[in-house]
Amino acid sequence: MCAKQVTKIGVLTSGGDAPGMNAAVRAVVRTGIYHGLEVFGIYRGYSGMIDDDIVQMNSRSVANIIQRGGTILKTARSKEFFELEGREKAYKNLAKRGINGLVIIGGDGSFRGAQKFSHEFDIPCIGIPGTIDKDIAGTDFTIGFDTAVNTAVEAIDKIRDTADAHDRLFIVEVMGRDAGYIALHSGIATGAENILIPEAKTNIEELVNSLTEKEKRQKLVNLIVVAEGDEFGANEIADVIRKRLPQTDTRVCILGHIQRGGSPTCLDRLIASRMGYHSVECLLEGRNNVMVGILNNKVHYTPLDKAVKAKQKITDDWFKIVKILAS
Ligand code: F6P
């Protein structure tokens, strides 16, 4: 807990953008104003803090944004903030406005920066998990994940149509950095035969055997969903299959940044609004260095160092579901 009462707070979005970040910004600004705080929007994440790109917000500054993807505050991955000199510059820009509390909406890299900054300059920092990757512990969902998965599902359903028409095997690569959640969720939801994720070792022999077996049973559509962080990329898998099963007409589709855009789903707007509201309450209660998450539909606070270090685990039953349902 932090003894000083916050009066002026800053909010920023940092790292990869995620649909729902705008809803979180809106919640922070409006909750802050409700409590009589001055609220400042910091543009382009930590870069804007260093470059003094900081603007006071009012309720109207966040009107008509809850349904928009991207982030009105823009975002960046700042290299300068890794250096003490950069962080000192950033602090001076906050201090001259009297900003004495921060809400950081971003992923694990952004939280690491926040932790350091908070220790060095005694500014309470509250994290809100905003990343499509869902690779943060202490929360069931991160802002943007649900939208990204739904985008992937919509795209894979379309791929299934053309795969079916041509009797082709499609290998679809989805994002997630070094986490496999987007692949796992979108793969199960689209009935993919195989889902390859970094959390489980990919066994090429098993994969080839399962395809051969399915071919014998004249399975009509074959979809493999691969997480970008898997040890084998989609193209590498396709090469193996073309060599081992030359009769299989194989295509690769890499979904890419389409998964980061678009209007946020209801779930993302909802969790963003709840997290944004609670982040300001946290600052007012004198909390510091915690992330606001939602676990079992209840707000849950996790120290930032635990949120960044511990990755969520994918339990065995998920893998069992994939295997049984793809039979
Ligand atoms: O962290 C979000 C994410 O979209 C990852 O899934 C992906 O690996 C990465 O960002 C892509 O980053 P960039 O937009 O810098 O290429």
What does this structure look like?
The chain is 42% helix and 18% strand. With 327 residues, the chain is an alpha/beta fold. A seven-stranded mixed β-sheet has the order 3-2-1-4-5-10-11, with helices on both faces. The protein has a four-stranded parallel β-sheet with strand order 7-8-6-9, with helices on both faces. Helix 1 packs parallel to helix 9. The model has no long low-confidence stretch (mean pLDDT 94). The protein binds 6-O-phosphono-beta-D-fructofuranose. 6-O-phosphono-beta-D-fructofuranose (F6P) binds next to loops.
The CATH C-level class name of the largest domain: Alpha Beta
- Any idea how many domains? 2
C-alpha Rg (nearest Å): 22 Å
Small molecules held by this entry: 6-O-phosphono-beta-D-fructofuranose
Q: What is the ordering of alpha helices and beta strands?
A: EHEHEHEHEHEHEHEHEHEEHH
Helical percentage: 40-55%
Structural class designation: alpha/beta
* CATH-defined topology of the largest domain: Rossmann fold
Low-confidence stretches: none
CATH architecture of the largest domain: 3-Layer(aba) Sandwich
**Overall pLDDT, averaged?**
94
By DSSP (H or I, 4+ residues per run), the number of helices equals: 11
Mass-distribution shape: elongated
Q: Terminal Cα separation, in Å?
A: 53 Å
Oligomer: single chain
Total count of strands: 11
